[in-house]
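Contributing new complexes? Match this layout with 2'-deoxy-thymidine-beta-L-rhamnose.
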Amino acid sequence: MPVLSWDIFCTVIDNYGDIGVCWRLARQLAAERCEPVRLWVDDLHSFARIAPQIDPALAAQTRDGVDVRHWSAHWDEVVPHRVVIEAFACEIPPLFRQAMAAASPPPAWINLEYLSAESWIDDCHGMASPQPPLRKHFFFPGFTPRSGGLLAERALSAQRDAFVADPVAQAAFRHEAGLSIDEGALTVSLFAYENPALPAWLDALASGECAVHVLVPEGRVLDSVAGWAGRPLTRGETLRRGALALSVLPFVAQPDYDPLLWSCDINFIRGEDSFVRAQWAARPLLWHIYPQQDDAHLVKLEAWLTRYCEGLSPAAAASVRQMHRVWNGAGDGIGEAWQTYVAALPEIRAHARRWADRLAALGDLTSNLARFCESLL
Ligand code: TRH
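Output block (do not edit by hand):
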C-alpha cells in the first residue's frame, strides 16, 4: 500500500516555469515513489509544449503514470488525496477545500513556493498558516539545508556523468537534434527572455577572436535574435557572422532539454526550472531572472550570486557577478564583461561541478517534501 497520495494544483501564469516545476514533481512522485498523483492544470496547451504526449482536448488522461486533469471552471466533487499541493499560491477550488475539511484525517496542505536564495527562506520554510479547520504549510525550495532543496530525479547526476563520458551518446544526441557543432568552438545554449543586452553581446561574439557556436531553442529570445540578424530565423538554420555561428533548435520535450545543457560549455537559462537544471548540468551558467516590479528580482539575483560565488577566486567571482548584472540590465559593457568571463571559464567550470555536488548533498526536493508531509499526517 502506498503511504502517500498527491493532488497538485497548477495555474499557468505565463511561460513554462509553473507547469515545468509541477510536471517534474508529479512525474518524479509517480516514478520514484510509485504513489498516486493527480495533476490539475488550467492550461493544457502550454503544458503540451513541454510534454507533447499531453492532449489538450482531454479532460482526463494518464501520462507517465500521472493522472492529468484539466482544471476548468466547472468542478465536480472529488475525494482529495492525502497530500494537496497548491503550487505557487494558486487558489484551490472552494468545493475541493470543503472536501479537504470533511476528510478524516484532513490532507496535508502545502503551498509550494517559488525558488529563491534569499536568507529569509530558511525561517519561513515549513511554517504553518491556520485556515480553520485546516492548516496550510509553506514549503520553500532553496539552496541551504534548512530549505526544501531543489528538484532532482534520483538518477540525474549518474545520467549526466554517463552522457558526458560517452562520445557515442553525445553524437547520437547531436544527430537526433540535427546539430553539427563547429569543431573547437565554445558552445553556448541560449534560453532567455527578450533582452536589451543581446545585440551588443552577439556583436561581441561575432567580432571576437574565439569561435562561438550559440544554440537557440525556439522561443521568446529568438525574436530579439532575428531583430539583430535583420531577418527572421527558422528552425534548423545556422547563421554565421565573423567568429559566431548561431543555430536555431526546436523547442524539445522537457526530458530532452537536459542533454542540451550537458552538451554545452555555457548555458544561458531563465526563470526557475531551467535555472535549476543548468545547475545540475554542472556547467557554467548565466541566469536571466524573471523580471519583477521595482527590480525585486535583482535582490534575488544578488542573493543567489552571493551563494554561488562562494569558493571562487575574487577575480572569477567578479566576472560571474558582472556578466550576470549586465545580462540582467543592472550594468553596462557586455563586450568587456563577456571577455573577462570567458577568460575565467576554466575556474568557473571546475566550480560549477563543485556547486552541483554541494547542492546534491542537500537532498532532493521531492524526498524532502514527502518526508515533511509524512511528518504532518
Ligand atoms: O518559462 P519560464 O520563464 O517560466 C517561469 C514562468 O514565467 C513563471 O511564471 C515564473 O514565475 C518563473 O519562470 C520564475 O522559465 P523556466 O522556469 O526555466 O521554465 C521553462 C521550462 O521549459 C522548463 O521546465 C524547461 C522547459 N523547456 C523544455 O521543455 N524544452 C525546451 O526546449 C526548453 C528550452 C525548455
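Reviewers usually confirm one structural detail per submission. For this one: The first strand starts at residue 6 and ends at 10.
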